[in-house]
Design brief:
The structure is a single chain. By secondary structure, the chain is mainly beta. The protein has a single domain, classed as Thrombin, subunit H (Beta Barrel). It is built from three helices and 13 strands, in the order αββββββαβββββββα. Strands 8-9-10-13-12-11 form a six-stranded antiparallel beta barrel.
């Protein structure tokens, strides 16, 4: 349990993606179309020109990201129509784009509260796209389905401050600790990397998503275990689909509404 204790001992040292983490390998800019091959389903979530996060398709109409990306700085939910997903965005060109129809953020994540292990454990959201993106254009990623272990090699594909015009791929970084639904990584993340997929690659297999970037300190990034969270979020979206869409609805099985005043990327 030493690894779990290390993860949960955040205290005042944690900031939500405030500083880049030190890493085991350099970032590779995915500039050309051929560079993006296989990574097309990672995209940028633009929040009405006021900020952005990273996110990845896990189905033609579902984008997985961090829950804190879908709230403003005051903790109010963003309106779905204020968010645009652009798959494989690079230097103003994208593979595909779509607006957002509905959002489900996990009910265990409470916005505008101090960041803790409990918040990181539940910092996941699913966005249902208004127009599904065909798999032939951007093939969705599968979840790894297994818990990452300390010492495991992973990779991260994300946007970030100073590198928001194109995806950056860190080919190798590592899980430094894992336990109680939270993981720590030595991956290079910064503002805008929130919601970025963390990949594990099996031998001879396409990369699978093992976590989502939630937060970071000066030398460590943090994410959560996913399979159970994602199933709960899918359930909430299905429940929302059977209800009328109302402005002002909250989370936990209802559609998001209200107004957006910006993105929440860095909060002590």
């Amino acid at each position: 349990m030493r690894g779990a204790a290390r993860i949960l001992a955040f205290g005042a040292a944690i900031i939500a993606l405030g500083l880049p983490a030190f890493s085991g390998s350099s970032l590779i800019r995915l500039t050309d179309r051929e560079d993006l091959f296989g990574w097309e389903a990672v995209g940028r979530l633009d929040l009405e020109g006021k900020g952005y996060c990273s996110g990845a398709l896990i189905a033609p109409d579902l984008v997985l990201t961090a829950a804190h990306c879908v709230y403003d700085d005051a903790g109010a939910p963003l309106a779905p129509e204020s968010i645009t997903y652009r798959a494989g965005l690079r230097d103003g060109v994208f593979i595909a784009e779509s607006g957002v129809e509905r959002i489900a953020a996990h009910e265990g994540y409470v916005p505008a509260q101090r960041l803790t292990g409990e918040m990181i454990r539940h910092d996941a959201a699913l966005l249902q796209l208004a127009a599904p993106i065909p798999a032939a254009v951007a093939s969705p990623f599968a979840l790894a389905g297994i818990r990452a272990e300390a010492g495991q090699t992973v990779s991260v594909v994300s946007y970030g401050q100073g590198r928001d015009a194109a995806l950056s791929w860190q080919r190798e970084c590592a899980v430094t600790a894992a336990g109680q639904g939270v993981m720590a990584f030595d991956c290079d993340v910064t503002f805008g990397s929130s919601g970025a997929p963390v990949f594990a690659r099996g031998r001879g297999q396409r990369a699978r998503i093992v976590s989502v970037i939630s937060a970071g300190s000066s030398d460590t990034a943090y994410g959560m275990e996913l399979p159970r969270l994602v199933e709960e979020l899918k359930r909430d979206l299905r429940a929302a689909g059977s209800m009328p869409k109302r402005i002002g609805d909250g989370f936990g099985g209802t559609a998001l509404g209200g107004t957006a005043s910006g993105a929440k990327f860095a909060k002590p």
